[in-house]
Model the fold of this input.
Amino acid sequence: MVAGRTHAMTQAAARRFGIRSLAFVVMALAALRAAGADADTYPNRPVRLIVPFAAGGLNDVVARLVAPYLERSLGQPFIVDNRPAASGIVGTDATAKAPPDGYTLLMVASSFTVVPATNPKLPYDPERDLAPIVMVAKNSLLFLVNPKVPAHLLAEFVTLAKANPGKLNYASPGAATQTHLVIELFSRKADIKLQHIPYRGGAPAMTAMVAGDTQFTAISTLLSLPQIQAGALRAIASGSLSRDAQLPDLPTVAEQGFPGFEAIQWIGLLTTAGTPKDVIERINTEVNRALRDPDLIAKFAQQGLSPAGGTPVDFQRTIATDLKNWTETAHAANITAQ
Done:
């Protein structure tokens, strides 16, 4: 009798387990179908494109150049939403905390990897809370000297700096900026000592360079090319791994004895972590398609930019490398956000 009851209980338990298992499978399949449907129909409403800086900045310009191409190819408005505050932290955090559905995108500059290196108390984790989609555009940082400095190539400047340790200075747009970290990283690799003079923005830093108040800096091609062409500044190296298209005779830092050294400014597109992979891949495909358009390439060139492109994994690797480099440099040089 006991054996019969035990057998009946075992059968009942097995039925309950089977029902629960079947329910789980049905729910899982439904979720997969829903995810597939989301990816297949994306987007079916307007997409918000957050720019975490004020209108007119480089990533804002890129966002407004790319948005019309995405609107045409994907059939929905891409609305640029400027969120300027706290070195981009506010807009970035808004994206990190948005629903992971691909309807909130974020256009960032390379400062996206500088801020975490110098400010450990962020409300988001740049790698865990955000998903890379694609690097959109890039331009070189040029290593520049005032024309009175007796150096026409980077090697000559390094020799001069080693002969005068701590006596040469360099300008940056401010403490804990990309220029600050790039030059500190280069100084460590070249084993030279320079004095840092921070300014409040790129324009006053350039003014100080032209006036001869500072001897050295690293500024984007876009900002520095007019001064180079006017003879007010001298370019001694390009920070990109390949020569700058606008200055083809200028050797790179890597060519001048520092293999693998790269210093560029990039603009890239991210979204909220957890966004379906198919949605990310679709946006990536359409951005890469836009970056092959001759009209967009010409518009980028007017801004001193080159189209980038690539896969989400490519962009993820760039972000990881930059975060590592800038974090190590910030710790070694004791650089923190002001």
